[in-house]
Amino acid sequence: MTRGITIALDGMGGDHGLETVIGGVEIATVRHPDVRFLIYGDEALMAPLLVKHPRVGAVSTIIHTDVAVAMDDKPSQALRKGRRTSSMWMTIDAVKEGQAQAAVSAGNTGALMAMATVILKTMPNVGRPAIAALWPTMRGESVVLDLGATIGPDAFQLVQFAVMGQAYARVLFGTPRPTVGLLNIGEEEIKGTEQVKDAAQMLRSIKLPFEFHGFVEGDDLGKGTVDVVVTDGYTGNIALKTAEGTVRQVLDYLRNAIKSSIMAQIGYFLAQGAFRALATKLDPRSSNGGVFLGLNGLVIKSHGGTDAIGFASAIDVAVDVASADLLHKISDDLSLLNGFDKNPSGASASDATVSNAEVPTS
Amino acid sequence: MTRGITIALDGMGGDHGLETVIGGVEIATVRHPDVRFLIYGDEALMAPLLVKHPRVGAVSTIIHTDVAVAMDDKPSQALRKGRRTSSMWMTIDAVKEGQAQAAVSAGNTGALMAMATVILKTMPNVGRPAIAALWPTMRGESVVLDLGATIGPDAFQLVQFAVMGQAYARVLFGTPRPTVGLLNIGEEEIKGTEQVKDAAQMLRSIKLPFEFHGFVEGDDLGKGTVDVVVTDGYTGNIALKTAEGTVRQVLDYLRNAIKSSIMAQIGYFLAQGAFRALATKLDPRSSNGGVFLGLNGLVIKSHGGTDAIGFASAIDVAVDVASADLLHKISDDLSLLNGFDKNPSGASASDATVSNAEVPTS
Questions:
Q1: A184-237 pLDDT per residue, tens
Q2: A233 contact residues in B (CB cutoff 8 A)
Q3: Is residue A190 packed enough to be buried (19+ CB in 10 Å), middle (13-18) or exposed (0-12)?
Q4: CATH architecture type of domain A127-289+325-344+351-362
Q5: Contact A267 B270 (CB under 8 A)
Q6: Could you confirm whether domain B123-291+325-362 is CATH 3.40.718.10?
Q7: Of A220, A243, A277, which has the smallest distance from its Cβ to B257's Cβ?
């Protein structure tokens, strides 16, 4: 159901600017013919590109601004100089004003998160937003969050991430009861940071519409042990980039190994279909698009360095979450946290029983 | 210079026990014919293995104990039931007593770290120990620490990790001034946890025998951007396991891609030399062996699930660090931290100038 869906696009974010955005929309028009776009950016720069891409013009409304948030602007700078007038601000504002159901920007993450939080505000029962993305696994895909929005969340914020992440997984994978794991350095209960241990205790004690699997480790990400992996933004970002770097490293080793002999090169030639399939499977562009969760509006962050193919993937994510009405699903599930005691191990543990909390009997 | 080196081995650690240890020593006798071994474990179980491996018997002294620390013992349990009598305790104690220059155990990490800390104590200027290991990179190898010993170190402890890690890199790679990076979620100074930001400030302000590169990100691990990557034990452990999992995932994809067509299988057959080289390069057994740094004695942790080939790699690490006298190099470098102000941004910042601290002029 993509009829009636409009996506707002920041035409001036990312390392490659408008060409990436317009090229991405061109691809998206084929995949989502019913979707309409609002593109915020410099009209003069856009005009020649729209001549080249008439299909984009046919489904898009261009809103002019020549104020851009720079890729190296600090969040505070971006808010100061880009308030109301920048393409990034206007893109997010379109979601707030109901002109679009989701916004996509390849602009700088810190600025985008700051602006999105200022404009859209956090949902009830959310302390801080999280960035969620799809992680390709041996079993398919998992939702992983937070990937860099919130450094040092407390235990209850990790619980909120779990609730938001599972709603995303339910919408995306159609699993009625997604499995959720907390990223840790061992499966035993005694391991890990206090936040992670306390969050696990909370997740065990409260009745929520998902299956809490317990702790998972770094290698469970690739295995796809659970549908949703929850962690703090610092660890999640490092894990994501470590995995991306490792993929490049293995492919680099593979290329060098193949170059090392004529026989291997012939073998490579014969197996090139398989290698192409591998490259497609590992292409970071196909899993581009991190969703900001916990705000009163849907904002999708595209990698800054991506191309049109990658930007089209971020648009896919926007269309998916908008047409599934993810926002309301998340806010419904978050309401289950109403009145939940945030300090079950603290001094007020004795009065920890609230409407939705339930001590498991097993 | 391995003459005169003796390595103490825990015969009862790991998932596969004595066979792995004796098999590992068999391999090590070829690589290090001058090295002698003390093996702690059950004599009755060892006897038949020594008949099978006469070369091991020729270079080893067996010290009997039938008390083993279990792989799932909590550190406190291990200390209670294994004090003095367990193979793990006796192995570490041999280092303390000067009978061996390094100890190797494949036993459980928490118990090993707890016992090693109790027996050997931390060095001056060390708050908590770290586990350092070699990380294969596109450029060669980097030292990465901490991989799981210390959860939530403060900024000054991260500085200590940097000092210890660079000493290890100097000894191992022979680089006179290793480059050191702090793992973070961006290269900008405003990003990351308070601990990481404060540690960066300290590392910039103090004169140390290495090059502080600044922040590095997760993908810099595989790239080999710096010789030493410093992080906390929680993040380091998750990054390591994420990378290991990603390697398995890519190889799994590769296998499936090749299985998908006859042509690819023929290609694989022709290129199998290259694939074998790749498999060897990515074999986790060849980088097995994490060194505990910051204690008054050298202890090497082998993966619990490794085999004889992997255990031999851990012995290699032990022989390397023992023959390079890593312990004294670390303690010399740590003395540069004498009197360093741990709160440069705190209230006492005005009197931060100490003997070895130097504010950079640029």
A1: 998 766 678 999 999 999 999 988 899 999 999 999 999 999 999 999 999 999
A2: 185
A3: exposed
A4: 3-Layer(aba) Sandwich (3.40)
A5: yes
A6: yes
A7: A277
